[in-house]
Write a structure and sequence with these properties.
Elements: H1 3-12, H2 15-22, H3 28-38, E1 46-50, H4 56-61, E2 70-75, H5 78-88, E3 94-99, E4 111-117, H6 126-135, E5 137-147, H7 150-153, E6 157-159, H8 170-182, H9 190-200, E7 204-210, E8 215-219, H10 223-227, H11 230-233, H12 241-245, H13 251-270, E9 275-279, E10 284-289
Parallel strand pairs: 1-2, 1-4, 2-3, 4-5
Antiparallel strand pairs: 5-10, 6-9, 7-10, 8-9
Amino acid sequence: MDEKQKNETYWEGRMEYLRDSRKDLWNPDYFAFLVEHVWRIDTPINIVDFGCGMGYMGSVLLPLLPKGSTYTGIDIGAKLLEEGRNAFAGSPWKVDFIEQDLTQYEPIKQYDLAICQGVLVHIPSPAMILEKMVRSVVLGGRVICIEPNWAFSSMGVYRHGMEVYSYEDAGTHQKLYDYWVQKGEADRYVGIKIPAMMHDFGLKNIDMRINDKANFYFSSPDNAKLEKDRTTRREKRFNNPDFYMGGGLSRAEAVRHVENILLTEDFEHSQSNPQPVVSAMAWLVSYGEK
C-alpha cells in the first residue's frame, strides 16, 4: 500500500468523525467575528483550502463572505471530495475541488486567501505545506492556519468523577510528541509554532487568536464496548503498548499509558448514568499577510 492509499484509507474511513468533530471546534458567531472585525473581509475573495476534506471551511466561510467569493478545496481523498461536491450541489456559490496530495501539489493559480484547519499537525513536513500556502496567495493576500498544539489539547478534557491525571499524563504525552518531532514525523506542537514559521516565510501583520469553543456534554455508557475484555481492547492500535514503544516510551511507560486509556474507557462506559465531560481544546488561529 503506497502513502496515498494509506492516507485515503485512514481519513475516508473516519468521515463520520470528521463531520462530528468539526461542529465541536467553532461557535458560528466567532467565525463571523473573525471575518467581519479581525480579517475585515468586505470585498469578494477567492479562497483555497489546503486539506479541505469535505469542504467544511467553505460551508462556514462562504455564507459570511461578500457575494461573488469563491472556494477551492484541495485534498487527497476522492471520497471526501465527492461528499463535498454533493454538499455544495445546487448552492449559490462557485466551488471547486481538486484531488491532489498536498506534498506533491505545486501552486499554479493564486488566490486571495489560503487556509487550512487540522492539517499541518498530521503532516511530517508542515513548513513545506505552509510555504506552498504562501505561494498560493497574491501579494497582499492572507494565509490562515487553524491548528492545535496537542500539549494544550491533550490536557484539555475533564471527566467528572475521575481523577484528571489518571487518564492524562502530561510527561508521557510530551515525551511522545518530542520523539515524533525528532524523528521527522508529525509535529504535534505545530499550532504554536506557526506565527514564527509565517515570519520565516516573509509574511507581515502576523497575529493569532484562540478559537472560543469549549464543550460541556455527557458521555453515554456503552455496555457493548465494555463487554470486550481488556485483552481484546488492547488489540486496537492506540491501546497497544507496542505502538507507544515505537514512539520512544519504555515498556513500563507504554503499559502505564495504555492502562490509563483502558481505565478511562472503563469509567466512561460502566456508569449507570451519563457523566459530565468538559472539553476545552484551545485550537490556535494564526494569520499573516503576504
